[in-house]
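Exam review. A common question shows you a sequence with its structure tokens and asks you to describe the fold in words. Practice with the pair below. Do the first one on your own.
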Amino acid sequence: IAALQMAAFGEADSPDTILRLIHEAGARALQIQNSPALAEKIERLAVDELFASRTPILMGVEPRSLGVPFFQRGPDRTAKTWQETLGRIANLKEIASDQAPAILAAGNALGLLLQGDWFHSHEELRQCLGALERQALKRISEEYKALAEVERRKRLRLPTKRAAKNHRRACKVARKAMER
């Protein structure tokens, strides 16, 4: 920060001043984050767990404002802990999550609307579609190889009956792979 100040203004605050300003800004942000007025307005949250040296950190983000009503070390990530944490937000109606069993159980116990988050759903879909695409490409490649063998045999005036049959079979398998 001091280097940035120096580059921009030709002078810089002392490291102690910079540290004090950061702490003051952090304290003010926490006051806003923990204000009851803000908590009353929250109806939806995206929730998840992070880990710091195997210690779970429960996190909630309000999707419209990107406010973070909680970011706390938890003793664990059980349904009871999630229920206590989510229960402190009085008007909460809906949560989006990775569908972890403890989060789902807590949401159900609190009567919340539950939805999967886009990231985890998209990632699972991407992996599934990627596997299907790889299978289809493999089958199409086999079909092209079989066709190339038929063409090679024709050029060399060799019998093509078996190669043509293999090509038809490869075409059928490739079509089925594409239909998935």
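Now try the second one, then compare your answer with the model answer below.
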Amino acid sequence: HYDTYAAVAENSNGEATSYTFHNVRTGTVNIELEKKWVDEDHYRTAIDEVPLQVQRRLNYTDTWANYQRVTLDGVIDQNDGPESGEWKARLEKLPKYNDDGVLDDYRVVESTVRETGKASPLMIQDGGYTLSDGHVYEVSVDAKYVYGEHTGQAVVADEYTFTLTNSRKDKISVDVYKIW
């Protein structure tokens, strides 16, 4: 979808001498974020918050830049009801194109988690992290993209959904004794 605007040049008599029309690509992106935990509820006592970084880049380039930081905390807000205790966020009306009309790509990166009672966040390295109590987590991201449609004058925003899953991957050591 393009928005068109015109620039008019006038001579000294106030008469139009030229018209320049500009077509600007328009559109927006909405991003739904959800954090899932696969760990039998251990995270409820071990994790305070998860900061996520929304990044964007110009389409077909390799360089990602931080765009917006979002912190999920899973805290139930009494004013918003029990659903607010879910680890979710929604960002709306992010620009789909840059000022030159080039498509922007978006992704979500989880680089740290904040452990309960700890001042410094844990860095996620090699796709996972280990809590101070020894529990090991693996981090994965599932992305789904639904592209909006342009019908007449209406432009429907693109909808991106990023589900970040932290799965507990503890290794258990068991001593086995064989009795003869």
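Model answer, second protein: The chain is about 0% helix and 55% strand. The mean pLDDT is 82. Full marks require stating both points clearly.
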